[in-house]
Design brief:
single chain, 309 residues, alpha/beta, seven-stranded parallel beta sheet, six-stranded antiparallel beta sheet, 9 helices
Length: 309
């Protein structure tokens, strides 16, 4: 069985990893592709968006695939997919994942399944709008960049030429060797598929920052009532400062929406109907986010809902 080309997609929360992956799947419909997707929450929100005919999909949730809490599950998922007849495998890691130990994980896969993969590159998505603030606040962002082979500055259309130059300089201070490209809405040129990006390795394998002790708290909300857009926006704005990310699907009085928040940006797109509205919250403040969500909901919405771990 021939080796599968393996790519790992990293990047902080909201940088555009799922958008890039959707772009790749759309452009590579003639290829046999496997996807392993990692989310911190229990609900696989992005998995519902990515699934399409012909894609072999595995979801690993409730933590980082590079943490000891899920590393074995990740090795097993890679091993199982390695035995399938596929051309490419893409791993989309969580926005808080530190991939510093990817070589160690792939060595475990070789022991379990043989030499089934050719790692072609770790690709780090950079949020052009929010990157400078993230770089100063989150050590994970530094690690993701240092251990990538290609950095993709996304949302280039939303920043000025001066801001872009600042981001480029900041990326180069962390990783002076990786390939560096810019794009909009994750629509990167696919010419990188013809290169071996691993030749641009900058730092050696090291222990991941992701541990059981620092795993962020996630909570999900379910609601059967339809809300006005104003009511949902008011709720999201109240709880947003306490969360790294909020995303899900929600029924409004004028139809269903896919909800996604990044920093202060709240995006709502029309989507297919679900059985129940669900949102997933990735907490900045630990378990205290439960009280924050509950209070914000009571003050802005006031209808019945359920919170679940």
């Amino acid at each position: 069985m021939k080796q599968k080309s393996l790519y790992v997609l990293t990047g902080f929360l909201g940088a555009g990893k799922t958008s890039l992956l959707l772009h790749l799947l759309e452009q590579m419909q003639d290829k046999k592709i496997g996807v392993i997707q990692n989310e911190f929450g229990k609900l696989g929100i992005d998995g519902e968006i990515i699934r399409r005919n012909g894609v072999e999909m595995t979801e690993i949730g409730r933590g980082s695939i590079f943490c000891s809490c899920l590393k074995l599950s990740f090795v097993q998922a890679l091993s199982e997919m390695g035995r399938m007849e596929l051309d490419y495998v893409f791993v989309e890691s969580s926005g808080l994942a530190d991939p510093s130990n990817i070589e160690e994980i792939l060595e475990a896969v070789r022991v379990l399944a043989g030499d089934v993969y050719a790692l072609k590159g770790v690709i780090c998505l950079v949020d052009g709008v929010n990157f400078m603030a993230q770089l100063s606040d989150e050590q994970t962002v530094d690690r993701q960049l240092a251990h990538c082979h290609m950095a993709v500055i996304n949302k280039a259309d939303l920043i000025s030429a001066e801001q872009l130059a600042t981001v480029v300089s900041a990326v180069r201070r962390v990783n002076p060797l990786c390939r560096l490209v810019t794009c909009t809405n994750g629509k990167v040129d696919l010419d990188f598929l013809n290169a071996d990006l691993t030749e641009l390795q900058w730092v050696a394998c090291e222990a991941s920052l992701n541990t059981v002790d620092n795993k962020p708290k996630t909570i999900s909300l379910e609601c059967e009532a339809a809300l006005s857009q104003d009511a949902l926006l008011a709720f999201l704005r109240r709880v947003q400062p306490d969360c790294y990310r909020i995303k899900g699907f929600f029924q409004l009085t004028d139809g269903w929406r896919q909800v996604d928040t990044v920093e202060k940006l709240i995006d709502m797109k029309p989507c297919e109907a679900r059985a129940v509205s669900q949102l997933v919250f990735l907490s900045k403040i630990g378990p205290q986010v439960i009280r924050s969500i509950d209070n914000a909901w009571k003050e802005t919405v006031g209808l019945p809902m359920k919170l679940k771990n």
